[in-house]
Structures are given as C-alpha cells and as structure tokens.
Design goal:
The chain is α/β, with parallel strands linked by helices. The protein has helices spanning 3-7, 49-56, 79-85, 101-111, 117-130, 146-158, 176-191, 203-209, 227-232, 237-246, and strands at 11-20, 23-33, 38-42, 64-69, 72-73, 86-89, 164-168, 195-199, 212-217, 220-225. The strands form two sheets. A six-stranded mixed sheet has the order 6-7-8-3-9-10, with helices on both faces. The longest helix has 16 residues, at 176-191. The chain is globular, with a radius of gyration of 18 Å. The structure holds adenosine-5'-diphosphate (ADP) and magnesium ion.
C-alpha cells in the first residue's frame, strides 16, 4: 500500500459546532492529525464521535467551524469530489448485497473516477489482493464472513485512492474472532502512511497504532495526546472515569 504515503495529507478540525434541532451535539470540537498520522477517537456512546466523522467528509455540514486538509478548508468543495479524497468505513459495511465483491469495487471507480471497465477491474483486483481477498472477487457479500465483508468495504474505499480514511467502529459488529484480521488491515494501512481517523473501542489498537488519542465527551475533544500520555497519565477526571470503565 505504498501509494498511500505519497498522497496523504494533514487534517484539522477547528471549533466545529453542530446541532440537530435543539440538540447541540458538537460544541467546538478540535482535532489535529499529522500528515500520515493516525488519530484514534475514544469516548462514551452519544458523545458525538460518529457526528464528528460525518462532518469531516461532509455527510453533515457543520453550523460553525472548519475542516482543513493541508491547511485548506474542505467546506467549499464539491461533496462528491471530497468523498473521493476522504474514504469512510462504517460499522455495518454497507456493501451492495446484490453485486459481486468485484462489482462493489468497480462501481465507484467507473461512476466517480470514470475509469473504463478493464482498468476498473484491474484496480479493483489489485486492491482486493492487498486485503487478502483476491479469491473472493466473484462472491456475493452474503457468502463472506463479517470480517471479510469489512475488508471488502475497506478495499472499496481504498480503490478510490483517498488521502484520508475515516473508520467508524469498523470492528464493533464483528464476531470476536474476526476482529483481529480487520484491525490488522487497518494497522498495515496506518504503517503505510495513510492519514486516518479511527473511532474505536479497541483500546489495544489505539495504544499500539495511534499517534494521537482523542477523548470525546459531550461534543468536544476534552483531551488529546500521544497514547502513553492519554492512557497512563490522563488529566481530566472524566477521561480517568471512562478509562476505568473500559480498560
Ligand atoms: P457517538 O458516535 O459518540 O455514539 P453520535 O455522534 O452518533 O455519538 O451521536 C451524538 C448525539 O447526536 C446523540 O445524542 C445522538 O442521538 C444524536 N444524533 C446523531 N445523529 C442524529 C441525527 N441525524 N438526528 C438527530 N440526532 C442525532
Ligand atoms: Mg457512533
């Protein structure tokens, strides 16, 4: 996955506010991810982690604040173009069930990247090979394990050559024995230099793979720093309480 290194960017979320009706969900969230870095976002359910990811790739528009790629705001960009630069992987895979694995990958390459069929197939097969699923190209999603489906979803996002990858609890829906394989693909991607934001409950992954761990609570990043600082010397009482519940 060496191509990830050449194209990755720095990502910054600046003072992002967002309300759903009367419900203020993001209250000035800030996050910095270095070029090629991996930030893991941890925090209690309902704290705004998924909403934060969705504002980064503009599935939701923030009310206030900014999202910067290499110092340039993405808020004026065409959302469809932006989603080629920022890939996202969800808890529930979101593969098209009626299409083969290969077609799940080639569809976006043809529609968004306008690649001709033969080139799309070539890119898709190469990407499936990188996640160890070249032999499943002709299978339907339902014929795969959850872990394999999630690796297909990751390959589908990577096939578009994004500069940033967002993962929203990508392993939370998996049977325990399948989690490791998916986390392995994510760790490889991080090591290859992809810029990533990973919302996760996997504290071992955060400790080993992240450069930055950001603790979200009530719509803000309350504390962020290197894993050693966040896990071994948490400053905020709410972070200490959260860690005592999950570790
Ligand atoms: P987390 O991912 O940390 O569990 P979310 O970002 O999913 O948190 O949600 C934060 C809060 O925003 C929750 O209270 C949730 O109910 C609310 N919320 C999320 N999406 C919507 C939406 N589309 N409409 C209204 N409320 C929402
Ligand atoms: Mg969530």
């Amino acid at each position: 996955m060496s191509t990830a290194t050449a194209t990755s960017v720095s990502l910054a979320v600046r003072d992002v506010h967002l309300a759903f009706g009367p419900h203020q969900v993001l209250r000035g969230a800030d996050l910095d991810v270095a070029r090629g870095g991996t930030a893991c976002v941890i925090g209690p359910s309902g704290s705004g982690k998924s909403t934060l990811l969705r504002t980064i790739n503009r599935l939701i528009e923030p009310d206030r604040g900014d999202v910067l790629l290499d110092g340039r705001s993405v808020l004026g960009d065409d959302p469809d173009a932006l989603r080629q630069r920022i890939g996202m992987v969800f808890q529930q895979f979101n593969l098209f069930p009626h299409m083969t694995v290969l077609r799940n990958l080639t569809l976006a390459l043809r529609k968004l990247k306008k690649l001709p069929e033969d080139e799309a197939v070539q890119v898709a097969r190469a990407q499936l090979d990188l996640v160890g699923l070249a032999h499943k190209a002709e299978a339907r999603p339902a014929q795969l394990s959850g872990g394999q489906q999630q690796r297909v979803a990751i390959a589908r996002a990577l096939a578009l050559r994004p500069q940033v990858m967002l993962f929203d609890e990508a392993t939370s829906a998996l049977d325990p024995e399948l989690v490791k394989g998916v986390l392995g693909v994510m760790a490889d991607l991080s090591a290859a230099g992809m810029t990533m934001v990973v919302v996760t409950h996997e504290m071992g992954f955060a400790r080993e793979v992240a450069d930055t761990v950001a603790f979200m609570d009530a719509g803000v990043v309350l504390e962020a720093g290197p894993p050693a600082a966040v896990f071994e010397a948490p400053e905020h009482p709410r972070l200490r309480r959260f860690l005592s519940q999950v570790l």
